[in-house]
């Protein structure tokens, strides 16, 4: 295999980006794209060391929440059409017990918009049930499984929320509506929506800083989760570096969960 495989990693905040960069073991090259859009580029060691070929990883701290994540991801993908083979939403997260413990790692089997819909007296209806949108994106399943195995991670749905869960009833409601979900964070669905627009497969990798439940910010173990994020990406780079292009393109054959008919996950620009 020849050629460089380019990967875009999108985090919410700079400490998360720096934890990903640290996994590459070398200082990043800052690449300003717009006034408030700066990529940090690294070349993780892997196939062929740091020479030609291998991985070229651009990292972006796009801001907190799905809107900032989608805007930042879209801007980068629009400014570099066809450049990236895969986009990864990454960062810390809340974990659903007992699926994953604080300090653990989750690779998303599905990236799910958990609060995109309407609330009535009868309960929550998502936009897919309303017939007006999509509520989940499916990462390439074989690749997600391979990353999870390499990182010692749980492979499970990851929820995207716009409001951090802070009560036990809300945690139970989400877990009830999304059986098997292992984590909640605030950006994955935005990153995946932007990636789908450009026909690029999306993945999500999260390390758990806190349990989903009653709010206790003092109990968040952010340094531990950031260290776990560095370790997870150090384990993931060789997998991404060694796989055939076909493997990252397998997403094309997997429709969005309850997809609409726009076909946005197909026919992309990856060369
Ligand atoms: O204060 C710091 O040093 C610091 C370092 C790294 C990250 C942060 C954040 O505040 C990250 C916010 C980010 O984390 C995700 N997150 C974490 N736990 C949860 C949760 O229980 N529910 C939802 N999201 C969570 C989320 O993606 C935020 O964007 C601070």
UniProtKB/TrEMBL annotation:
It catalyses: futalosine + H2O = dehypoxanthine futalosine + hypoxanthine. SUPFAM superfamilies: Purine and uridine phosphorylases. InterPro entries: FL_hydrolase_MqnB (IPR019963), Nucleoside_phosphorylase_d (IPR000845), Nucleoside_phosphorylase_sf (IPR035994). It is an enzyme of class 3 (hydrolase). One of its GO terms (molecular function) is hydrolase activity, acting on glycosyl bonds. Residues 251-264 have a biased composition (Basic and acidic residues). Pathway: Quinol/quinone metabolism; menaquinone biosynthesis. Keywords: Glycosidase, Hydrolase, Menaquinone biosynthesis. Residues 61-217 form the Nucleoside phosphorylase domain. The keyword Hydrolase applies. Residues 251-271 are annotated as: Disordered. Its EC number is 3.2.2.26. Belongs to the PNP/UDP phosphorylase family. Futalosine hydrolase subfamily. PANTHER family: 5'-METHYLTHIOADENOSINE/S-ADENOSYLHOMOCYSTEINE NUCLEOSIDASE (PTHR46832), FUTALOSINE HYDROLASE (PTHR46832:SF2). Catalyzes the hydrolysis of futalosine (FL) to dehypoxanthine futalosine (DHFL) and hypoxanthine, a step in the biosynthesis of menaquinone (MK, vitamin K2). This is Futalosine hydrolase. The lineage of its organism: Bacteria, Bacillati, Actinomycetota, Actinomycetes, Kitasatosporales.
């Amino acid at each position: 295999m020849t050629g460089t495989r380019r990967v875009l990693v999108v985090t919410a905040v700079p400490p998360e980006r720096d934890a990903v960069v640290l996994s590459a073991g070398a200082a990043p090259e800052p690449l300003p794209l717009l006034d408030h859009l700066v990529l940090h580029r690294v070349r993780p060691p892997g196939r062929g060391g740091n020479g030609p070929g291998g991985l070229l990883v651009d990292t972006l701290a796009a801001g907190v929440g799905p809107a900032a994540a989608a805007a930042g991801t879209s801007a980068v993908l629009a400014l570099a059409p066809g450049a990236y083979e895969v986009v990864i939403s990454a960062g810390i997260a809340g974990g659903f017990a007992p699926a994953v413990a604080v300090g653990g790692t989750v690779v998303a089997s599905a990236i799910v918009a958990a609060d995109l819909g309407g609330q009535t007296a009868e309960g929550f209806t998502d936009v897919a049930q309303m017939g007006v949108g999509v509520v989940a994106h499916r990462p390439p399943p074989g690749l997600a499984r391979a990353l999870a195995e390499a990182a010692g991670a749980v492979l499970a749905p990851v929820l995207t929320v716009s409001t951090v869960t802070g009560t036990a009833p809300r945690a139970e409601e989400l877990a009830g509506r999304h059986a098997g979900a292992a984590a909640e964070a605030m950006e994955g669905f935005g990153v995946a929506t932007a990636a789908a627009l450009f026909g690029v497969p999306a993945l999500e990798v999260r390390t758990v800083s806190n349990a989903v439940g009653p709010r206790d910010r003092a109990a968040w173990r952010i340094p531990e989760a950031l260290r776990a994020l560095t370790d997870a990406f150090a384990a993931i780079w060789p997998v991404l570096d060694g796989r055939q292009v076909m493997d990252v393109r397998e997403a094309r054959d997997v429709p969005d969960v309850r997809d609409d008919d726009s076909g946005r996950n197909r026919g992309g620009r990856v060369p």
